[in-house]
Amino acid sequence: MITLYLRKTDIRFLLILFLSFKFHSCEDAINTLFEQINEATVKFNRLGAEIAWQYSVDPNDAGLTRRSADYQLERIVWQQRSCEVVEGLHEQGALNVTQQRQAHLLCRGPKFTYEEARAMSNLYDGLLTIYSNAAVCVPNISNVADGLSHEAVIKQYLVKLNRFAKVDGRNVSLKTDKNAPKREAIFCIKGEEEFDKLMKTSKDPEVLEFVWKIWREDTRYMRAPFRELVNVQNEAARRNGYTNIGEFWRDELEIDDLRTFCRRLYQSVKPLYELVHGVVRFYLRQRYGDVVSARGPIPAHLLGNLWSYNWEPLAEFIIPKTIDLDDRMKSLNWTVIDMVKRADDFYISLGLPAMTETFWSKSLMTRVNDNERCHGTAADMFKDGDFRLLYCSGTSFEDFSVLHHEMGHIQYYMAYQHRPGLFRQANTALHESVGDAIMYGVRTPQHLHRIRLLNDTELFDVNNNNKINKNVRKTTVKMVNAHRIYKNNIESDTNRIAAFIDDSDVGDISTDDILILKQALNKLPQIPFSLLIDEYRWRYFEGSLDENSLNRHFWDMVRELQGVVPPERRGEEYFDVGAVFHVADNTPYIRYFLSSFLQHQLFESLCRASVRGRRPRWMPAKWDLLRCDIYGSKVAGKILKDLMSRGSSQPWRQILEETIGESNISATSLNTYYRPLYKLLTRLVQKYSIPIGW
Ligand SMILES: *[C@@H]1O[C@H](CO)[C@@H](O)[C@H](O)[C@H]1NC(C)=O
Ligand SMILES: [Zn+2]
Questions:
Q1: Which end of the chain, N or C, is less surrounded by CB atoms within 10 Å?
Q2: Closest ligand to 594 CA?
């Protein structure tokens, strides 16, 4: 019998076994070998998941380092030996198609030595510690009354700081002492949720700039450990035939020439992005004045988000009436548990399984103490029914979206749990798409009404485009051509025109208009952002960035791709890419870029199935995805289940083809979804001669 933990002699034995008997029993032996490899994979994944979970909930656990080291050693030895064996068999042509795929999944990736794996763990831990400990404490200046918001306290502090700065004639450091003596009451902001919350709610440019900068103060210390982390990974990647770790990251997605592929996708949504960008810039200029240029990139700190990738908080600048879903959730007194139950209910309505008992007992949904690292995570513990959520959730609509997103991962884990161990994973872009695709269903007016976030009047307030698009109708232009037309249309002086803005005819804006605008502000900026984060790292990994201008390169790319600039010149003493969780966490990001497109394709396909009760190839060209209520559609659920349960047993193209009938990732569904918005924004652009591009 072949044992699981193969020694060199076993390997030789197995090869001899194979070479000498070309018949039945050998096939059986190989099948058994693969069964054992798959079982061991599950066993190691289970151990790894337990350690990762423990790291997140209690990073200071004393025994953890030891356990983690033991685990790494055992896994490395096992994996490399198993790989040698299956690669030997593969060279002999002894593996069937399934086994070849499993061998590929088992043996791809960087090959770390034990020492490298340890070094990786330490560096990784160091980076995450820097990231998680970002904090600022501001003295609560004595004459500030209790009960003021963080924003107000910071404002007071800045006013005082400026006064001193003027008196002393020197620059006052923004950095305040975290360990300041406690004799003064101090206000502290700690962790990404609190920082981002301020970026989302404050409309004071000074406060925003302060919070934005402070968030990036400590990430400068990531520069050196990040360099080391990359060196170690490159070394290990080269050991397995990749030119650098970036090549493996791209390879993993199984898309040829991913860089060109992504650039093309970006180009195909750029007209839409530029339109949103131009309109947002125009209204920000109304609000904040000359600090926002008329035609250039937008200052990063004014975009309603710590990373400028979610502009939804700016909706109220653009439309006179909006629908504040956060407020409504508050007035309904939803708890986090209520939200999770509603998300669960949506998936169940599609005929998908309910969250397990262990999910409810083991998940961490709100912050218990200060130590947890709670960037939203869904964990597959590789144990019967043990799927967990880790997320320090608040009760905003954004939190509601995150919960659906993470639950999409858990549905995926459940769907492929009966597959062999090596197939219990999936193309990462697909994995990221499920929960977000579901979210389009949740954000339909019908479902929002169903869960009492919209009232009857709003539900029935359908688009009256006759009035709204009066001007646009004559110039119904194809999307791609449209922005060229705007470019010739922007000669007039926007400053002058801006003074005459009256929103009287934006007054008949419909519920659908509001919802789609909010959705676009939330989603579209993520597209250039996610491309940025990995294009930058790919260049870093391959060594094509000058070590002395790493930060400048970063901001050059931000400007090019996002049309955004930092609020001040950012020198090389900073390492601003490190202010992004997935950089500190060393997780690839391009999956989110691809998912931005895939999730629309998936949703469109679920929508078709829901409406037609099957999978039709053809649908009317003009239809309204925003109002496609898929809640309760068992057919949609069936398609999803079919797609998810395949795990990584096939390449993604084949899975997509066989489940939703598409074989590529494209912007078509996304552009269909946003067609009504395109019209709405076009109307604004024409009315106010808003410049487009940067
Ligand atoms: C798939 O889409 C990408 C990106 O738009 C494009 O570059 C590629 O040629 C397409 N591939 C096929 C096979 O259609
Ligand atoms: Zn995710």
A1: N
A2: 1
